[in-house]
Structures are given as structure tokens and as C-alpha cells.
Task: structure prediction
Amino acid sequence: MQEMARKNVVLRTEGLQSDSTCSSNDVRLRVRYGECQRNIALEVGGYALDGCREFMASTVEGTEGALICAACDCHRSFHQRMVEPEAA
Result:
């Protein structure tokens, strides 16, 4: 079975400053949301994931629908959050 290639989806970039006196030490982080971790068989006492591999927002950023996945229709908080340093 051929595995699908993952693509990076940048949803938000956060700026963190490690030292408030020196602005050259700014660290930018890339946040993306990966596989859905929601247990869809919880009601029957089982454990099963729906297979959603990556969060894709239903609507544009800033609206309520931006927190709902277009693929599996669950909230973004069910997806694995991955924070990576962004290359400067």
C-alpha cells in the first residue's frame, strides 16, 4: 500500500523573544496540526481513529469555522500540535 506524502500546513507563526534586551535573539516558531487523535469508537468502548492525516481549516482564518477540520469535521484541538523552529 502506497503511503501518502505529508505536506506542511502553516497555520500560525508565533514570535518568541528569549531575551527582552536583545531583539536579535528572536525565535520564530511554525505551528502545524497533524494527525487527528479523536477516538471515534469511545461510545462503544473501543479505540479507533478516523484516519485524518492533517488538519485543514474549513473556512478562512479568523472565523469560527477555521477551527473545524474540513476532512474529519472535528475541532483543531483533536489534532496533534507540532511546533517547529522556523529557519531565519
About this structure: The radius of gyration is 16 Å. Strands lie at 12-17, 26-36, 79-85. Residues 1-5 have pLDDT under 50 and may be disordered. The CA atoms of residues 12 and 31 lie 6 Å apart.
